[in-house]
């Protein structure tokens, strides 16, 4: 299998494709083949490739280009606020156990349509972990959508206002993973709690949810006003879930840039 296209050893002018072939590739939307075919064909002629080698190289080029395009599109649709990867997460200084981190990184819980809940104080790696897992999931071919809890509820409220909340929720449930960060940063009213319940209930055993909150579960009544609904949300969220509790000092505070003092 050829992973790169060898270049001719001697400088030669790369001929353009015949106009009819160029047009045919345009119609078939084979942009990568159209772009690389002239050089591949010249290289094949000089190095005496077999027809199978030529076809394989062109097809692999097109597949690689489409895979990269799909990843870019899924990353854009996911709406991550920043780019945080699992590789840049410092597991050694984190309170997340390496075995747990490895399991989460395997993404098996997404394939099993299980959930993830990360609970802990600010600055202990919750958002980094969620975003890193989301980006890894995109690269693995999954559809992902990131929200803060406030943005999610606002999105659902807009659907409620124009009578499309059902369609909005069904659209969200087309994702393989829905990430809800900063749960509990702002209290919800009864309507917001009911909308959140509809999403969690719709995702139950169908899609994976990954949430992060600084509130322990027993304190969720502080920002969810209706306790019966809060209990129902937690019941469905945690039934098939990995629960990760983080602790320690804030990473941001430890690595803050101190302003210079003046006298």
From TrEMBL:
Family, similarity comment: Belongs to the IS21/IS1162 putative ATP-binding protein family.
User: Is Phosphoprotein given among the entry's keywords?
Assistant: no
Keywords attached to this Swiss-Prot or TrEMBL record, sorted alphabetically, are: ATP-binding, Nucleotide-binding
Q: Name one GO biological process term.
A: DNA replication
Q: Which organism is it from?
A: Gordonia amarae
Question: Annotated Gene Ontology MF terms?
Answer: ATP binding
Q: What is this protein called?
A: ATP-binding protein
NCBIfam families linked: IS21_help_AAA
């Amino acid at each position: 299998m050829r992973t790169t296209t060898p270049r001719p050893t001697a400088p030669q002018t790369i001929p353009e494709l015949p106009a009819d072939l160029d047009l045919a590739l345009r119609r078939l939307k084979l942009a990568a083949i159209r772009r690389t075919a002239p050089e591949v064909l010249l290289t094949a002629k000089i190095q005496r490739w077999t027809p199978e080698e030529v076809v394989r190289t062109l097809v692999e080029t097109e597949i690689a280009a489409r895979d990269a395009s799909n990843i870019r599109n899924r990353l854009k649709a996911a709406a991550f606020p920043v780019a945080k990867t699992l590789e840049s997460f410092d597991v050694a200084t984190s309170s997340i156990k390496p075995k747990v981190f490895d399991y989460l990184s395997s993404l098996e819980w997404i394939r099993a349509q299980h959930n993830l809940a990360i609970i802990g104080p600010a600055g202990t790696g919750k958002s980094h972990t969620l975003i890193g897992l989301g980006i890894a999931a995109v690269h693995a071919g999954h559809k992902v959508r990131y929200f803060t809890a406030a943005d999610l509820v606002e999105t659902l409220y807009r659907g409620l206002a124009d009578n499309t909340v059902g369609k909005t929720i069904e659209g969200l449930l087309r994702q393989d993973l829905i990430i809800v960060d900063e749960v509990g940063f702002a209290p919800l009213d009864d309507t917001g709690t009911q909308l959140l319940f509809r999403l969690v209930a719709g995702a139950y055993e169908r899609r994976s949810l990954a949430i992060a909150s600084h509130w322990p579960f027993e304190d969720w009544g502080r920002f969810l006003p209706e306790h019966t609904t809060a209990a129902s949300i937690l019941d469905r969220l945690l039934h098939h879930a990995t629960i990760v509790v983080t602790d320690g000092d804030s990473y941001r505070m430890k690595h803050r840039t101190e302003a210079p003092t003046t006298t």
